[in-house]
Write the structure tokens for this entry.
Amino acid sequence: MADYFDIGVIVKPQGIKGELRVFPTTDDPKRFSLLDRADIALGTDVRTYGFERVWYQKGLVILKLSGIDDMDRANRLKGAVIRIPPDKALPLGEDEYYHRDLIGMEVFTREGERLGELSEIIETGANDVYAVKTDGAENKLLIPAIKGCIIGVDTDKKIMTVSLPEGLRGL
């Protein structure tokens, strides 16, 4: 299941008819409306469920799955992860990447100096920030994910080239 995309986590039942509250872990929660089924993974148990109904409420996705018709069955899915295969993923635009393709990349300056490995992506209101675990350092180097800083990304070679703003290393 490593190739699958996680798009949400079931939080708890919604009502008594088997509906589920889902915390979306995708950039576009409305993508649930484009699906007719998904895999639901609870530990090592993975099952495919059809979608009967999808709606949105207060930042959550409310989902009605086929065969989940009461609160007890819905409650058993609490904490389950909703996954889709790569062919159901939304297409990316230019200079857009899936987080999973960026994590683990080796990060270099445009001069060829190795800075470390991209270990985390921090989502902020304005833009993402890439946390780079530098060799032998306790702290991570935080690089804004903006065009002025990110010069190139090669997902095949797992290499990112950056231009660090002046003073960034001293922070």
Remarks:
- The helical segments are 71-75, 99-102.
- The mean pLDDT is 90.
- The two ends are 39 Å apart (CA to CA).
- The first strand starts at residue 5 and ends at 14.
